[in-house]
Amino acid sequence: MANAAALSVVTPPHNILIVDEDAVTSRYGPLFNSDNFRVSVTPHVKVALEFMRRTAPALLVSDLALDREPGGNVYAAAKALMVPATVLVTTTEPTLVPDALAAGCDGVLLKPFAPNLLITRISRLLRDRSNQLRLQSARSLGKSAHLSERIDLFKSGTNRTWPNAECPYCSHAGVTSFDYASMRRAWYACLACRKVWIAKRQE
């Protein structure tokens, strides 16, 4: 009888690239002391772009301000990979988040945040990514025609769109929650007027 260990599937570690000038965030790399992650950390956009040309990361974590620098464009580079990377934005400026959402980021984490929250958010995004890639692979093989709807469920990452919720500023129907302010309140953004606010969490 075959050994159970021999039958187990070995999953390669996820490549994670953290791009941030914040010394505190740069110290988060060693916290990923796991066979599931291979973490690279740099404060330099040019280094990050070169890294992505050589080693396509599964997930990019980057401060939103860095992508606004001339020649930055780390998010566009991450999404332009043959297998697009999942992008988690970090920022101290909630007012900048609507632009990141419109650009297709998969998650937002407002600074300051606890290290365990970063790891929890990354783990969830990577799990969603794995599910999405698995479903896309099954669909491409023609195994099921009903997978498109399930794939779409994973595309928003940890951001959530609420079609029936209205923006308090412009009354646009359809807003996006992108982070939690507390157990009962969340951050929201309107992509129509680019406003952000805190309100009761949608259920």
Number of helices: 7
Ends: how far apart? 49 Å
Quaternary assembly: single chain
Strand order of the biggest β-sheet: 2-1-3-4-5
SSE-based structural type: alpha/beta
What is the strand content? 25-35%
Low-confidence stretches: 1-10, 150-154
Number of strands: 9
Order of helices and strands: HEHEHEHEHEHHEEEE
Write a concise keyword list for the protein shown above:
single chain, 203 residues, alpha/beta, 5-stranded parallel β-sheet, 4-stranded antiparallel β-sheet, 7 helices, 9 strands, 26% strand, disordered N terminus
What does this structure look like?
By secondary structure, the protein is an alpha/beta fold. It contains 7 helices and 9 strands, in the order αβαβαβαβαβααββββ. The protein has helices at 4-7, 23-26, 45-54, 74-79, 97-102, 115-140, 147-154, and strands spanning 14-19, 37-42, 59-63, 86-91, 107-110, 160-166, 173-180, 185-189, 196-200. It has a 5-stranded parallel beta sheet, with helices on both faces. It has a 4-stranded antiparallel beta sheet with strand order 6-7-8-9, with no helix packed on it. Strand 1 (14-19), helix 2 and strand 2 form a beta-alpha-beta unit. The protein is globular.
